[in-house]
Amino acid sequence: MGCGAVRPKRELRRIALVDGEPVLDREARLPGRGAYVCGKDCARRAVEKQGFSRAFKRRVQPGPMFVESLETDGEEARARDREGAGDVLEGRPREAPGRRP
Ligand SMILES: [Zn+2]
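Above are the sequence and the zinc ion SMILES. Below is the predicted complex in structure-token form.
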């Protein structure tokens, strides 16, 4: 949102409004409109350009702490994504049944 880059959704952080405050939606489960940023710099740019207000169609002014919080949360999410991807690969059968000699 902030930089205008097109990225796969899994690389984006979803931001949702809770009581009028933008928060990182780690699990992408919060209801309502969402805004997507791809990182801390992206979020900062979005804050400067009132991107969150546009995305949520209301006045939203995240504080500096919000942008800072994205950094650590993003790292955690990326680590979790890596773990998740590993699980999927391990869970997939390596050979199709019936192909064994
Ligand atoms: Zn971006």
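The chain has one domain: 9-87.
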